[in-house]
Design brief:
The chain is of the alpha/beta class and 225 residues long. 34% of the residues lie in helices and 27% in strands. It has a seven-stranded mixed sheet with strand order 3-2-1-4-5-9-8, sandwiched between helices. A two-stranded antiparallel ribbon has the order 6-7.
Length: 225
């Protein structure tokens, strides 16, 4: 039996502990971020137009709020969520009973080859150590159909942030901040074509102030020859 990496155990147990507080904290987060909604809308349009009718996976879906947003855009997308944390999946199912949510790891997705018309990884690769990130991107390439897109969101920087407490709960979480150029390099190494890189300054106003700038990279699996 293959041993489960320590960071997966730590991430899973941390989000299990945070789930009750996180759902309330993040409930209005997307409504407060117009740029992110625009980027998600562009991703959804690309998935609807070029995904061949295949489902779209929100990998690291958390409470399912972004999964639901994609579903509600009216583009007839078959969207489902995957998350490492059983408690986050339970919250997502309760919050959005009409959508599908599954437990799983981006390092070993329980999906057939070329079975997705799009993949979103919004602030979920941030917990994957540098040494494991190529494995995640290889999985993204494997499950995407030719021509399908992947969009990533992450904090920009060079040094990780470690949290040991959240909402009064003990956690053990590393937030790996990365440069968009480096993310692009790793995606290309995994066989994906980079379409765009967006970088913005951190938001210091409003209900969701940020500690770092934010990055968003859109890539696609090349179409079959």
């Amino acid at each position: 039996m293959t041993a489960v990496p320590d960071f997966l155990n730590a991430t899973r147990s941390s989000y299990d502990a945070m789930a009750p507080g996180y759902v309330e904290f993040a409930r209005g987060e997307l409504a407060a971020k117009s740029l992110e909604r625009a980027l998600l809308g562009a991703f959804a349009e690309l998935a609807a137009a070029g995904g061949g009718g295949l489902p779209v996976a929100d990998v690291g879906c958390g409470t399912g709020r972004v999964t639901a947003h994609l579903h509600e855009l009216g583009l007839a997308l078959d969207v489902f969520g995957i998350d490492l944390s059983p408690q986050m999946v339970a919250v997502a199912r309760e919050e959005h009973p009409g959508l599908r949510f599954e437990e799983g790891s981006m390092l070993d997705l329980a999906l057939p080859d070329a079975s997705l018309g799009g993949l979103l990884a919004r602030y979920s690769t941030i917990h994957v150590p540098d040494a494991k990130l190529p494995r995640a991107f290889e999985e993204f390439h494997r499950v995407l159909a030719p021509g399908a897109h992947v969009q990533l969101g992450f904090q920009v920087g060079d040094e990780p942030l470690r949290l040991t407490e959240a909402w009064g709960m003990e956690v053990s979480l590393d937030f790996h901040r990365r440069q968009p150029e480096r993310i692009g390099e790793l995606l290309r190494d995994a066989g994906l074509e980079v379409v765009s890189r967006v970088w913005r300054e951190r938001d210091t106003d409003g209900p969701f102030p940020e500690r770092a700038p934010q990055g968003f990279v859109l890539a696609r699996r090349p179409s079959a020859a």
